[in-house]
Write a structure and sequence with these properties.
Blueprint lengths: L32 H22 L3 H19 L4 H16 L3 H19 L4 H16 L3 H19 L4 H16 L3 H19 L4 H16 L3 H19 L4 H16 L3 H19 L4 H16 L3 H19 L4 H16 L3 H19 L4 H16 L3 H18 L1
Helix pairs in contact: 1-2, 2-3, 3-4, 3-5, 4-5, 5-6, 6-7, 7-8, 8-9, 9-10, 9-11, 10-11, 11-12, 12-13, 13-14, 14-15, 15-16, 15-17, 16-17, 17-18
């Protein structure tokens, strides 16, 4: 059975996908006055899209991203690299909302445009490959994601050199794929190499180095090698606090991973103040209704559940669910995961009748959003089966366990 790499701060984050980020091509062809007006308006919209994305307001950003795309298509034509940039941005917004069927064709079209306009080995092609791979990774389609990430890494190495920071990002992305599958022996050397690149290219105190340290520590944590993980996390936290300030979101990410390390060791008293601080940073930096706040609430609630403090955990989980439903939509996979957390809390308290409809709804969301073969579907099937076993309803439990086992058999 695979282990979910939940403690890794960055799995697939494609450099330059969000509009406004630097592009490798640097091409700014001459335009007619009307085309330039359109491009100026598109750039203005891009700035708003980037701001809304950072605030977690993905639904509000989508119509603006669509307007920007339409302006670029009109000003540049449908096959220009600038259009590919808009497609990547819109695809990333749909991906954030769990609308993978909408995101995939956008990334595919962006990839086609970049390959045709810039050539198959251009760094912008690597970015599009990473975006498409991210959609597949989110759906558990690892066999489709891996060759794209390997190709992106090869392009960046050949185009930019083996020690370029974008190569480090490609290594992180590929490592994230292996971490999702629990293949730590493949992930670890990639993350070690990424760390070495960023330390040499950016310096030992750069925030990207902190991210690499967090990711590498994540591998060790997942394998129970806590003594190897902790000093890396402490160093990452120190880098982020000194370079970005005590209230920066990257500091929250480092604190969160360190807290989860302590929780895994049963050191709840050390974990709780870190998770409380994480929640405070996210709320102040991003606002109380950002999806990251929901994730933080879930983590703090998980700690309280582990301590048996169910009355402290429940309101946090309910608030997290409310945030996710409003920010991401009722059918997002993260909504399903919150439903499962609440259901398990009720199950632990013997409230089976309250838990069952939540698990049934979560299973429906996950199957529709991720497909019947995704690992999260198997996890939900197991949770629902355990609920029926606890109530003595073995006739309902057996087919669910068989479905989960068939999923595991295909995976192995």
């Amino acid at each position: 059975m695979t282990r979910r790499a939940g403690v890794i701060t960055v799995l697939v984050v494609v450099v330059g996908v969000i509009l406004g980020c630097a592009q490798h091509s640097g091409r700014q062809p001459t335009s007619t006055p009307s085309a330039q007006v359109a491009m100026d308006e598109a750039t203005r919209l891009d700035t708003l899209v980037e701001q809304l994305y950072g605030e977690g307001k993905f639904l509000a950003a989508i119509p603006l991203a669509k307007q920007s795309l339409a302006l670029r298509e009109k000003a540049r034509g449908p096959h220009h690299p600038d259009v590919a940039r808009s497609l990547n941005s819109l695809g990333l917004l749909h991906q954030a909302l769990g609308a993978y069927a909408k995101a995939e064709p956008l990334f595919v079209r962006a990839l086609d445009i970049n390959e045709e306009a810039l050539g198959a080995t251009h760094p912008d092609v690597a970015q599009s490959l990473g975006g498409l791979a991210g959609v597949y990774l989110a759906q558990g389609a690892y066999a489709k994601a891996e060759p794209l990430l390997i190709r992106a890494l090869d392009i960046n190495e050949k185009a930019l050199g083996a020690m370029h920071p974008d190569v480090a990002q490609s290594l992180n992305n590929l490592a994230g794929l292996y971490l999702e599958q629990g293949i730590y022996t493949k992930a670890e050397p990639l993350l070690i190499r990424a760390l070495d690149i960023n330390e040499k290219a950016r310096g030992a105190m750069h925030p990207d180095v902190a991210t690499n340290l967090n990711n590498l520590a994540g591998i060790y944590s997942l394998q129970g090698a806590y003594a190897k993980a902790e000093p890396l996390l402490v160093r990452a936290l120190e880098i982020n606090e000194k370079t970005l300030g005590a209230m920066h979101p990257n500091v929250a990410a480092s604190l969160n991973i360190l807290a989860m390390l302590y929780r895994a060791q049963g050191a709840y008293a050390k974990a709780e103040p870190l998770l409380v601080r994480v929640l405070d940073i996210w709320e102040k930096a991003l606002g109380p209704t950002h999806p990251h706040v929901a994730a933080s609430l879930n983590n703090l609630a998980g700690l309280y559940r582990a301590e048996g403090a169910f009355t402290k955990a429940e309101p946090l989980l309910v608030r997290a669910l409310d945030i996710q439903e409003k920010a991401l939509g009722a059918m997002h996979p993260d909504v399903a995961r919150s439903l499962i957390s609440i259901a398990v809390l009720y199950r632990d308290q013997g409230a089976s009748t309250k838990a069952e409809p939540l698990l049934v709804r979560a299973l429906d969301i996950l199957e529709k959003a991720l497909g019947a073969l995704h690992p999260d579907v198997a996890l939900c099937l197991n949770n629902l089966a355990k609920l029926y076993i606890a109530t003595g309803d073995y006739a309902k439990a057996e087919p669910l366990l068989q479905r989960a086992l068939r999923r595991r058999g295909r995976e192995e």
